Amino acid sequence: MVEVKIYRVEGYMRLRTGEARKFRIEARGLSPEHVLEKVYSELGSRHKLSRKHIKIERVREISVDEVTSDYVRELSALDRIVVFE
What we know:
Layout: E1 5-14, E2 20-29, H1 32-47, E3 54-62, H2 70-77
Antiparallel strand pairs: 1-2, 1-3
């Protein structure tokens, strides 16, 4: 069974106005590559950026104690998720 881990991604993005803005996003994923895809997708969708405008400086695995995002912390506390179709 594959374990879902928590990663913190840090970097900066170049906005349409030319301004560079730092970001730090915490996300859950199976591997750093999965989390990077999620971060690119989320930032690109939210700020209308392409991948060349997003620069990743660091991706590291963190423990539940280090998490600052309430959403990720609560999601990590669940033992199962039930989906109704």
